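Exercise: predict the fold of this chain.
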Amino acid sequence: MLIQAILINTWRIYITEKDEFSRGLAMGFLAAFVGLIVMGFGANIFVIVRIAEPFWFLAACVMVLPQLRDAQEVQPIEEPQKVEST
């Protein structure tokens, strides 16, 4: 179920994102994830810390992309008001 959720969410993020960086990050992660799944048929790769830690960090970064986009749309950065002194 976790593999299915990652695949579906990553594909949905790739389709819905408008930013080219976000789309590239999602597609790169999706390609790497499929490669790791294929490689996992022959070896137990997620036991190796050098592979597992960056994978889960990148998975978290990709999964939070829609929330970052929504936060930018809701809260625009306002310029500070100038205070006039006399």
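Check your answer against the key: The mean pLDDT is 85.
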